[in-house]
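name: query_chain
kind: protein
chains: 1
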Amino acid sequence: MSRPRILITALAFAALGCKGGGGPGGPPSARVKIEVARVVNVPDRSEYVATLKSRASSAIRPEVEGKITQIFVRPGERVAPGTPLMQIDPARQQAALKSQQDTLAAKRASVEYARQQHERLNGLAASGIASQQDLDQAKAALDATQAELAALEAQVREQQVQLHYYSVAAPTAGIVGDIPVRVGDRVTADTALTTLDQAGGLEAYVSVPVERSPQLHLGLPVQIVDSAGEVLAETQVTFVSPQVDEATQTVLVKAKIEGEGLRPSQFMRARLVWGTHDGPVVPVLAVSRISGRHFAFVAEDDKGALVARQRALRVGDIVGGDYVVLEGIKPGERVIVSGTQFLMDGAPVTPET
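structure:
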């Protein structure tokens, strides 16, 4: 052993000797704080990636073809029902409507003339001057022009409704999504203008490995957590797919979400709580991480004295300030929670009073 390493070891044991007295001829006993591994009711849970989707998302598409002349809203803006979203150039439709309206005015004049002719022949027929045939012809002409007038009025109403479609309005209240079109773009009935998502109506889509599918059921508790593990929303499973995704070998589950600050298409962490069980916990301060593995020291009896024994642990979630121990420590064992930086396996220890 090199001289510096001998000096460091001597200093470490000198520090331990200052903390407690060892037996004659043996290493000094370190004074440590000891806690008994407690048993608590801990949740059995798993975390998966969840995609938030809107339960009430409307795809806004135009009813007519044309060029966009104005966009009145911005992505992320909240709108009320009937709020104008975009304007499609209505010039061609306005011209067609004007032509129909002019034709309608001329047809109304024709109907008025046919009515006057019928009334005049009706009076002449009553006086015996006009024949019944002339009267019948005048009545047929009046009926024909009235029918043509009704058809033109229907066409004008249709053109007016069609003109209304050139102004794209919000069908419901919601939040405007991405707007992929720009002013000047030509759109058709298949063009996606934007989306409209109703606030708060979100659903979490979670893909669960097929080996956990037997434990899936409606009402299973679900927690939506952020990157720090803080719970943002609590809910339950509302849908379990009866099929397995062939590509990913997962089962899709859905859960309705109500939470502030959550948005459609957002990726979150979903924590499925399968149940609870009793298990030991140890303070986080008692656990050290070495080369990716977790270790802790326990105090064991050895010929009437206490010695430190290092244990490899398999830990689960953190509950409060404690690790849930899955393997390595049993309930009731004495865990060393302080002074572990100078301990070695088998070193004598003395509990702090």
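note: Helices lie at 3-19, 91-126, 132-164.
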